[in-house]
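Please, structure for the following, as tokens.
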Amino acid sequence: MARSNSKLVPEARAALDKFKMEAANEVGVNLKQGYNGDLTSKQAGSVGGQMVNNICPVRTRIFTRNCRWLDGHTMKIGYEYRIIV
């Protein structure tokens, strides 16, 4: 499926720009309005990654269960997941 760079709701552009600026401030990237060609790939990627982490954060759940190999012992099992709506 071909991807389009158009917004589903054009009126949301201001909110998305504000969200991007907040994410850039959280990771310490000096983002300015307009062209940001002076940013490195690492800096631009960190802004995008922060935006994804804010939208759908990683959750960790730890369970304790009986060990399958040793009787009377328990193990901690951790699961990491994202809730995507």
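The longest helix spans residues 13-27. The first strand starts at residue 58 and ends at 66.
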